[in-house]
């Protein structure tokens, strides 16, 4: 048993704790929870259900992870919650497990969830995502690698936030946000240019993505026509292919904007 366990914590028999795990006072860890090495579990944290916490993750005061989904179709099915390595989960974050038997809610590696964030059942959050304070993601939301969701954002169930997209604070998202796009006032305003430059992207790639976002979201084209124009006019770069695949996979439609006059 690790040595950094506060005697006031409640750890059920069957829970698995790795090496050098710290558990704060009044934390509750259920019997089916697995915690990797070097994790820090803060005071009053509740870890329940079939929950797996990756190595080096830090969970702050009052977070509730792995609890039953808020879904009328859930009747005790055995589902999971998976948290990746080196994540930071701040105060009072709530993450609910999947609904269907064997399904999961999954958070990738090096994800930061700021205070009071909520992830509904079956959300899928990829690596290096940041979600700021008090943002609420309904069930089955998908967030692509490196996306940034600003504070107090509301995201409708089944929506997808594309790779390296940036969503402005207070947004209400009811359709998919394209990869590399930037959202302000509930509309696409262009590309996440700062994020792409910081990632070391070439000017050619950034210009191609800028044009792809313009075609798909700002020109008023139908999705088939936008896909056709992107294929005909833009270079066959990996990032452009990823963008096209995202468009092809949308089921809720795309959040759009209006081209500048």
Report what the structure shows.
- With 261 residues, this protein is α/β, with parallel strands linked by helices.
- Helix content is 17%, strand content 27%.
- The protein has four helices and 28 strands.
- It has helices at residues 193-198, 203-218, 223-233, 238-249, and strands at residues 4-5, 10-11, 16-17, 22-23, 28-29, 33-35, 40-41, 46-47, 50-53, 58-59, 64-67, 80-83, 88-89, 94-96, 104-107, 112-113, 118-119, 124-125, 130-131, 136-137, 142-143, 148-149, 154-155, 160-161, 166-167, 172-173, 181-184, 187-191.
- The strands form three sheets. Strands 1-4-7-10-13-16-19-22-25-27-28 form an eleven-stranded mixed beta sheet, covered by helices on one side. Strands 2-5-8-11-14-17-20-23-26 form a nine-stranded parallel beta sheet, with no helix packed on it. An eight-stranded parallel beta sheet has the order 3-6-9-12-15-18-21-24, with no helix packed on it.
- The radius of gyration is 20 Å and the shape is elongated.
- The N and C termini lie far apart (65 Å).
- The mean pLDDT is 96.
């Amino acid at each position: 048993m690790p040595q950094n366990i506060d005697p006031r914590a409640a750890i059920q028999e069957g829970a698995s704790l790795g090496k050098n795990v710290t558990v704060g006072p009044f934390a509750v860890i259920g019997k089916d929870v697995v915690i990797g090495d070097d994790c820090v579990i803060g005071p009053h944290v509740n870890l329940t259900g079939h929950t797996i916490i990756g190595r080096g993750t830090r969970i702050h005061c009052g977070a509730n992870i792995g609890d039953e989904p808020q879904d009328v179709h859930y009747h005790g099915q055995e589902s999971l919650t998976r948290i990746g390595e080196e994540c930071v989960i701040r105060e009072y974050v709530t993450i609910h497990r999947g609904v269907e038997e064997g399904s999961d809610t999954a958070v990738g590696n090096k994800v930061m969830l700021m205070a009071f964030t909520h992830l509904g059942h079956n959300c899928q959050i990829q690596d290096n995502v940041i979600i700021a304070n008090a943002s609420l993601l309904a069930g089955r939301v998908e967030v692509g690698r490196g996306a940034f969701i600003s504070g107090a954002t509301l995201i409708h169930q089944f929506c997808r936030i594309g790779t390296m997209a940036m969503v402005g604070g207070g947004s209400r998202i009811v359709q998919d946000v394209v990869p590399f796009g930037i959202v302000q006032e509930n509309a696409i305003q262009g590309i996440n240019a700062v994020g792409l430059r910081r990632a070391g992207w070439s000017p050619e790639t950034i210009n191609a993505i800028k044009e792809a976002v313009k075609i798909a979201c700002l020109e008023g084209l139908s999705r088939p026509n936008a896909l056709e124009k992107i294929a005909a006019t833009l270079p066959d770069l990996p990032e452009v292919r990823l963008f096209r695949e995202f468009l092809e996979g949308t089921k809720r439609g795309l959040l759009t904007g209006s081209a500048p006059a």
